[in-house]
Amino acid sequence: MNPILQFFQNVVTLRGTYDWNTVFTFLFYPDILQGIIITVLLAVLAQLIGTLIGLLLYFTRRSSNGVLRGIGELYVWFFRGTPLLVQILFLNAFLPYIGLARPLIQTHFFRNLGFQQDIPLDAFIAGLAALSLNEGAYMAEIVRAGIDSIDLGQLEAAKSLGMTYWLGMRRIVLPQALRVIIPPLGNEFNSMLKNTSLVSAISVAELLEAAQAHAFSQFRPLELLTVASIWYLVLTTIWTLIQRQLERRINVSNLDPALTSGGSWWKRMIGFGGRETGVPMPAGADHH
Amino acid sequence: MATIEFVDVTKEYPNAKTPAVDNVSFTVHEGAICMLLGTSGSGKTTLLRMVNRLIDPTSGEIRIDGVPTTQQDPIALRRSIGYVIQQVGLFPHLSIEDNVRVVPSILGKSAAETRDRVDELLHLVGLEPAEYRKRYPRQLSGGQQQRVGLARALAADPAVLLMDEPFGALDAITRARLQDELLNVQRGVRKTILFVTHDVEEAFKLGDQIVVMSEGKLVQEGSPIELLAQPASDFVRQLVGADNILRQFEYQPVTAALEPATDAAQERIAADERLLPALLRLIQMRNGALAVVRDGETLGQVSLASVFASVQSIHRNASAASGEHNRSADSAPVIR
Ligand SMILES: Nc1ncnc2c1ncn2[C@@H]1O[C@H](COP(=O)(O)OP(=O)(O)OP(=O)(O)O)[C@@H](O)[C@H]1O
Ligand SMILES: [Mg+2]
Which of A51, A92, A229, B50 is least enclosed, having the fewest CB within 10 Å? Predict the structure, then answer.
């Protein structure tokens, strides 16, 4: 057979060796399911912490104190200027130096939590820290764009009514900035779900690492990477649906009383009196 | 109730060549509406913002009921002073109700506790609570937003109200209606009001007292009638249109033309009416006189003769003050 044709045939049929059964067997394998939990846990925690860091960085970088401003700029410069994988490896290698690795491992935190397979807490923390710190640098830009899009007069008005700077920020500026922040934040979380796979490099048994473990024991790398891919697709698809809902709520008409009256703080934050449907978002919010 | 005293107040912004407010002293008495009138950049907003300490004076002090504002906590001070901001400044993410109850809510009152108060305030500024409570600022017209701004400033029942061009950017009809409503509200609640405006008509209509500012300096301070009768400079004279006889008729109270009551008085007119309606009525009646009454008591009367006599004397005074007659008499500059 023509070698070129042969090549394409191999690509399509994988020389008849690709085993769908392995895929189905491992799709719901307990290790894999546990890996999904770890992945989601890492992503949610890192996004939360990263967002808080981003918020903190906003105030550092807007501070009147030159030293604080310098630290903020340095932080963003460093974490945006080095690869996430290097940051993960670096932090993981760092923990033993400060004598934290062993005591953390010995807590057997995840096993005590009921996980079948223990995950070394030191690596988990190093991974989580790297993901969070890195995310903080990116969220800093997003938070800055969001807050700076709010008219200074709003804070001024809040002050003139007797709110302190912080109260004005919390009750007046931030809820409005959230409209601008949430869409890019959603995109960040989508990336985060996938970026957690990088911590497989330090043997945290998240989704990819769990799949990899079986890939080696079964000599079926392609099949188990398929399993991982399927689950990543499921996660990102679910998130995309949630994100769409979230953004719709931001844009939804104010006239919908369910969004605005007597809701929880969360409802108020999400439903904070959006514009009439069809009115464009404030500048900077629609860049995706 | 509160008296506001400005004592040698000066504000210099960093890197500015001239002070934004330059050695200004005057007193606003309890329950009075004081209009700050001046060209753009004359320091009106700056002066206002020093009252609630959004900025502090470079020198001099402001006293409220004798207490220097610098001795008061700025946050507590601001909560006790209503501020209607230039360009409205409503919070777009809060419903009208939540906008109005901002100050009570930071003072710890729940929505249930403030509900009646919000209704009362919305009624006061002429918005039907049932219709507007749950709306959002962008669902209101500019004029309605201004009303909400006023309601919000009144929410904590402050003794002092600062209003920075609250009716700017409104059409003449809506503006006039809001002005009437403000006077209405004021009749009931009696705040000490500092009101910034560009608009001479507005200053005359609302003001018990007018402070004319130019380039940071206080040029003249007095009642509308004093400004009309004795403008301190050509600037004020032109600004207030002191040469304009019609304006004199419009703003002088009937008491300025009072003469002893006679049998000729067929009708009555309230003492706080202006000369113009009295004059129109007298012309309609072809002659005769109007009895001037206050609280049911007759103070005297006005007749065509007494009205003319009074205006002549006012006009003579005004002309004498400037010594110049060629100026177009009926072009009152509305400064922008
Ligand atoms: N924050 C500031 N920093 C520096 N200069 C300022 C500041 N605010 C106002 N000024 C200056 O002070 C002067 C007075 O300004 P102010 O806002 O008090 O004027 P205004 O009488 O309210 O004018 P307008 O009628 O246009 O509102 C202006 O020359 C202005 O440029
Ligand atoms: Mg101003």
Answer: A229
Residue B283: inside a domain = yes
Q: Render pLDDT for B243-285 as a digit per residue (tens, 0 to 9).
A: 777 887 888 888 888 888 888 888 888 888 888 888 888 888 8
Rg (CA), chain A: 23
More confident residue, B267 or A189: A189
Please tell me the predicted confidence (pLDDT) of residue B316: 66
- CB B15 near ligand 1, within 6 Å: no
Residue among B85, B95, B106 minimizing CB distance to A167: B106
What three-state secondary structure class fits A45?
A: helix
Residues B163 and B306 in one domain: no
The b-or-e profile of B111-120 (16+ CB within 10 A means b, else e) is eeebeebbbe
Q: Residue A278's pLDDT is what?
A: 35
Number of domains in chain A: 1
Length of chain A as a residue count? 288
Structure tokens, A42:
């890492």
Q: Is residue B213 part of a domain?
A: yes
Tell me if B74 CB under 6 Å of ligand 1.
no
Provide the whole-model pTM.
0.75
> What distance, in Å, lies between the first and last C-alpha atoms of chain B?
32
Number of structural domains (chain B) is 2
Distance of CA B198 from the midpoint of ligand 1 (Å): 14
CA distance A140 to A185: 11
Q: Is the CB of B43 under 6 A from ligand 1?
A: yes
For chain B, say whether A251 makes contact (Cβ under 8 Å): no
Chain B residue closest in CA terms to A275:
B138
Residue B185 shares a structural domain with residue B260: no
- C-alpha angle B239/B242/B247, rounded to 5°? 100
**SS3 of residue B85 by DSSP:** strand
User: What local confidence, expressed as pLDDT, does residue B334 receive?
Assistant: 44
In tens, the pLDDT along B305-335 reads 888 888 777 666 655 555 444 444 444 444 4
| Domain membership of residue B164 as a residue range | 4-240
* Residue B307 maps to a domain: yes
Least confident of A90-99, A166-175, B251-260, B310-319: B310-319
**pLDDT surpasses 80 at A270:** no
Q: Assess if residue B142 is contained within a domain.
A: yes
DSSP tag of B274: B
Coil vs helix vs strand at B252: coil
